[in-house]
Amino acid sequence: MEWLDPTDKVSRFVREKTMQLTVSGKQVELSDALRVHVDTQLGNITAKYFDHALEAQVTFGRARSFFTCDINLHAGRGITVRGEGEAADARTAFEDAAEHIAKRLRRYRRRVSAHQRDLNKIKPEMARAYILAPESEEEEHATPNGVDTATQEFHATVIAEDMTAIETLTVRDAVMKMDLAFQPVKMFRNSKTGGLNVVYRRTDGHVGWIDPEA
After folding, report:
1. Which residues pair with 164 in a beta bridge?
2. Number of folded domains in the chain?
3. Which SUPFAM superfamilies match (predicted)?
4. CATH code at 204?
C-alpha cells in the first residue's frame, strides 16, 4: 500500500498490480477492508475483458443520508467505463456502481475486445472544452445605463478549460463509447463521411444522432 498524501483531507490509496487503483473518500472514512474489497471486486470484473494494465479511480462521498460511489475505469486505447452507485452504506454503494460497470462491459463484450485489438485506429483530434458559468436572472434582465440588454451581445464567462479528444468512429462505436462512459452526449468524426457528428441520449430513452452531412 502507498498513501499518496497522508496530510490530504481526502484520503487516497494506490495499489499497483495489473491495475493502478486510486480510492478516495470525500467526507467519508474508508476502512482498509473496504479498500481491499474494492481492489478485489474491480480486479475480478476487469480481468474478464482486459488483459493489460488498467487505471481506475473510485470516489466515495455523501449525499444527504446516503453514501455515493463513482467509478471511472480507463482501459487505454480510448475505452473509458463509468459507474455510479448510491446506498445506505459505502460498501453497498460500491457494489451498485460496480454492477453498472459489469453490466455495460457485458453488453459490449465482443466489441470492446475487438476495439482493443484494432491496431489501425486513427489518432484522435484534440479540441478545447470549456465549462461556462450560467447567466443569472439579474444579468439577463439588467438594463445598465438605461440600455436594453436584449439588444446587446454578452460573452459567456469561462470557469474551466480542458482538452478533449475527438475520435474517428463509426456511429455504432460512438454510441457504445457514450454508453460505457455514461455520457449524455458524444462528438466524433464519422469514419464513413469524415464529418463531425454527435450522438446523444434522448429523454424518451432512445439515442439521437446528428449528421450535418445527411
Report:
1. 127
2. 2
3. Ribosome binding protein Y (YfiA homologue) (SSF69754)
4. 3.30.505.50
**Domain, as residue range, for 51:** 11-116
Is 17 found in the same domain as 59?
yes
Quote the crossing angle between the two packed helices 32-47 and 90-107, to the nearest 10°. 10
Q: Are residues 18 and 60 in the same domain?
A: yes
Q: Let me know: does 54 contact 90? Beta carbons within 8 Å.
A: no
Question: Has residue 42 been placed in a domain?
Answer: yes
* Residue 53 pLDDT exceeds 50: yes
Q: Say whether pTM exceeds 0.70.
A: no
Secondary structure E strands in the chain:
11-16, 19-25, 54-63, 66-74, 80-87, 125-132, 158-166, 168-169, 185-190, 196-201, 207-210
β-pairing verdict for 158-166 and 11-16: unpaired
